Structures are given as C-alpha cells and as structure tokens.
Amino acid sequence: MELKFRACLGHPPAVELRRIRIERAKRMLSETDLPVLKVALLSGFNSRQVFSTLFHEETGITPVDYRNEFRGDPHRQQPPIP
Questions:
Q1: What are the structural domain ranges in the chain?
Q2: CATH homologous superfamily, domain 2-70
C-alpha cells in the first residue's frame, strides 16, 4: 500500500500526514485565538515542542510568528481544512 501511495503522491504517507496536520494548524493559527498548545493537539501533534519544531521546518517560521503574520488578513487565501 505504501508503494502505491508513493507512486501517486511522490512521498510516503507519513510525509503527507505531516503536511495535512501543518495545513490544519496554519488554518487554526490564522483563524482562531486558540493557544499554540491546543492548536498542536488538535492538529494531531503530541506536544508543543514537536509541533513547533516541525512547523518551523515546514514553513520557515514559528507558529507564533505565523499567527502574527497571517491573523485576520482577509486577502490571504488559505486552503480548506482537510
């Protein structure tokens, strides 16, 4: 099954799951006032530390910086939460 997944998307399921979780977190950070820990947990991460590290690796900025940059800007397009 993993080989079929890789053939379709070009990466393993774990990478896709992480991408989806980060996208969900980005949406929550920009649209809610939930604490970062709550965003991390609701996005499927087990701790704020792990979430913050992976978020930074994926986006180049911290979750707090992302929230400050994207909060409330109606002109920024965000993908739908999967």
A1: 2-70
A2: Homeodomain-like (1.10.10.60)
**From CA 25, how far away is CA 54, in angstroms rounded?**
11
Residues 43/50, Cβ–Cβ less than 8 Å: no
pLDDT in tens, 60-70: 999 999 999 98
Q: What is the 3-state secondary structure (H, E, C) of the chain?
A: CHHHHHHHHCCCHHHHHHHHHHHHHHHHHHHCCCCHHHHHHHCCCCCHHHHHHHHHHHHCCCHHHHHHHHCCCCCCCCCCCC
pTM score, whole prediction: 0.77
Q: 41, 59, 20, 23: which is closest to 50 by C-alpha?
A: 41
Q: State both tokens at 2.
A: 């993993």
CA distance linking residue 14 with residue 53, whole number of Å: 16
